[in-house]
Amino acid sequence: MDFTQRIFAYLKFQQLLTDLHGEPFEEFVHRLMSARHPDYVPVRTHGNLGDMGADGLLLFDRTLHACYAPETHDYPSFRTKFRSDLNKALAKRNGHFDTFAFVHNDARGGVHPQVSILLSEVQDEIRPLRVAVRGRQWLWQEFMRLDRITAEELLGCPIPIDERTYGIGLADLEPLLRELRQRRESAEPLADIPVVNQHKIEYNNLSDDVRETLLKVLRHSYLVDEYYNGIMQVDEHDLVARGFRIYFDEVRKTTSDSEELWLELEKYVVGNARVTHRATWAAAVVIAHFFERCDVFDVPPSDWAPTASTGGV
């Protein structure tokens, strides 16, 4: 799917999850995971055995999935369901899995503080087994890897292929862009560019224009760290970074040209409509941040260094 199709699919996907609870949500997870992973095994209940603490199993990754999607979310219900499924899995499937993944559709983002404590306690109890909680963002990132026909089947509607124009490309980054725009005038540049970026820039053989833009905005990429350090959702940065990486990997399947890659990343941040110079600057800062984090473009081997023929920065 291209950029505009992904925006349409994202809105439909979020609405679909909002309307799915109980068994319909579990069925959707089965369909999504079966489409993504040939080793995914949906588990149905059977007589006195029940489901033995799992709704689905990834054979290769040895991951059990338990689904939780009530119409209203509250901590006591989550704790009871989580403990019940986990205890059954440990009792009846011990030795058959390495990770217990709890899949939910809570739209509020993040987890309840008591849930985070519960997860820490349970992780300590079951080591070396692992616990994972997978919500809407994780489900969307799985969905993003589907081809268009399969995605349409899951959404229950066609994804338009005509050209459309959108002013904003990624809702998750809207607050960040507003913050960068507001702070653009007062931002103090960093004194130097880290050496790791020098090597990475040369290693990726960036065009002169991309290279020049990147070198300018890298001096302001610390604003992105300051933004994420100031928000309450501690996992938001990693989730956005993962989505950025997935999108970049998809784009690179169609081109290796650094200018085209950069333009597609800009489109991912601000959309494909005409935007102000300030918005373009903010988008470049965002891209530079994820470049510096090594979420986009290639990381040079540890022993690699520019040769005399490649020049320096």
How many domains? 2
Shape: globular
**Structural class designation:** alpha/beta
Helix content: 40-55%
Q: Could you state the order of secondary-structure elements as H and E? A: HHEEEHEHEHHHHHHHHH
CATH class of the largest domain: Alpha Beta
Overall pLDDT level: 78
What's the architecture of the largest domain, going by CATH?
Answer: 3-Layer(aba) Sandwich
User: Remind me, CATH topology of the largest domain?
Assistant: Restriction Endonuclease
Explained architecture:
This is ABC-three component system protein. It holds the Pfam family CTD10. InterPro entries: ABC-3C_CTD10. It comes from Streptomyces heilongjiangensis. The chain is an alpha/beta fold and 313 residues long. It has 2 domains: 153 residues, Restriction Endonuclease, CATH 3.40.91; 122 residues, no CATH class. Helices cover 52% and strands 7% of the residues. Strands 1-2-3-4-5 form a 5-stranded mixed sheet, sandwiched between helices. β3, α3 and β4 form a beta-alpha-beta unit. α11 packs across α12 and α12 crosses α13. The longest helix has 18 residues. It starts with a helix and ends in a 21-residue tail after the last helix. The C terminus is likely disordered.
